[in-house]
Amino acid sequence: MMALRAPLARSAVMLALAALGGCAVLPEPVQRIFSLPAQDAPVEAWGELERWWERFDDATLSADIERAIAHNSRLAVAQARIDDAAQQVRVANQRLIPDLSFDAGAARNKRSERTATNFPGLPVITDNRQLGFSASYELDLWGRIRAGERGAIERLEAQQWARHSAQTSIAAQVAIGTFRIRTLQQQIRLTSATIALADEALELIRRQRDAGLLGDFEYQQSRAERDAFAVRLTDLRDALDRTRRAQAQLLGAEPDEIWRAGRGVDGEGAPVSGAAALTASAPAPGTALPALPDIPEGLPSELLLKRPDVREAEAQLRAASADVAAARAAFFPQISLTGRYGYQSRDLSELLVGPATVWSLGLGLLQPITNARLLDAQLKAARARVRVAEASYVQTVQAAFVDAGNAFGARATAHEARQLQERREQELTDTLRMAGRRFEAGLTGALEVIDARRNLLAAQLDALDRRNAELSATVDIYRALGGGWSAPPSP
């Protein structure tokens, strides 16, 4: 017994040292590898950003975004990738538990009677039946299997963040598309109203021409101006059709619904006639742009680090670090335990009796020798992937600050431009009114009214574009800050 205890004690010490050595190849924690600017605004000032679209107080917008989140094909692809990554975690986890198997078999063999090992009296034909259980287990002393499991878990988390990032992007695209559709609808209504007014003016100029008060030049100029408005109207309707189809795709519509999306009513309503057409500010029902929500001043750096794409890049970096740990552990020997217990018998009736019992235990060690260069190349490749993941992580964080800075700047610029354009629109409205009075009094020609009408329409269309740009920039701020997703509820 004393002779046996010494080798067992040495083996236990070696296994303990090996287990401690295994800790040395576990993934290293990811360190922050960049500096952040000082936080300009507290995170609390922003509140919850999970459902930022509700701040626009628009039921139609909220319903469209909810539909896109539920049915968008891009999110379906992202969810499928999550499911795949989750199964990869299960595969990696199975390597940490013993492999159990059951086997049963029956065989009949005939040996040659013309060999040197043929002995008289031995049966030529033999039967053999067996039944048993076997088990094998690799001792993960160096952390190779655990590192593989950790890498699979991190990749699952990265795919989850990728879905959140896609959801954030899709919610923003739906909101921007909605605002664009409504802007185009209002622009179509204004242009149609301008054409109606141009038709009225053209009829008046025709009667004056027939009466000899005006020549053909003024009449042809008015017709050309009216046709220019009609050309602009066709362009606006084409843009609306394209935007509607893109919006239908975002909402997860069927192909037939996408095709029909560009053939609906454009929403401008009944054309407005008379001078009131260009001064009416109320949009048609269902085409009004929502009010702008308040945006706190300043850039909260902490919110940017919570963006889904930043967290995805960080998870990918941790996964790459786990790959390095697994590649380092591959240099150490693989130690496996095997065992089998079962029954073997010539006759089936005696298979489960005591004398038919068989069992075996084994300890195996596999040390790589000739493939050391391959393992070294795999380790260096894993370290290179870590550098790639580090650079990608830094690039993603930098892009987050670029997105946020551009969104804040775009909103400020769009707000100032919208105010200036609305003031210009009012000035041109007054100019057209005065030009119309001068024309009716015979103090000026029709060309002055035509120019005033053209300038006012351009200003009105541009004012709507500026309003849409301000709304879109607001959406970009929420998107840049990573809003638009929520964690699944706890089970």
Short account of what is shown:
With 491 residues, this protein is of the alpha+beta class. It has 10 helices and 4 strands.
Within the largest sheet, what's the order of strands?
Answer: 1-2-3-4
Mean of all residue-level pLDDT scores: 81
Q: What characteristic shape results from the CA principal axes?
A: elongated
What is the CATH C-level name of the domain at 61-106 and 126-387?
Mainly Alpha
CATH topology of the domain at 61-106 and 126-387: Outer membrane efflux proteins (OEP)
The SS-based structural class is alpha+beta
Query: Spans of 5+ residues with little confidence (pLDDT < 50)?
Result: 1-24, 267-281
Question: What is the string of helix and strand elements?
Answer: HHHEEHHHHHEEHH
Properties at a glance:
single chain, 491 residues, alpha+beta, Outer membrane efflux proteins (OEP), 10 helices, 4 strands, 60% helix, elongated, disordered N terminus
Structure write-up:
The protein is of the alpha+beta class and 491 residues long. The chain has a domain of 308 residues: Outer membrane efflux proteins (OEP). 60% of the residues lie in helices and 10% in strands. It contains ten helices and four strands.
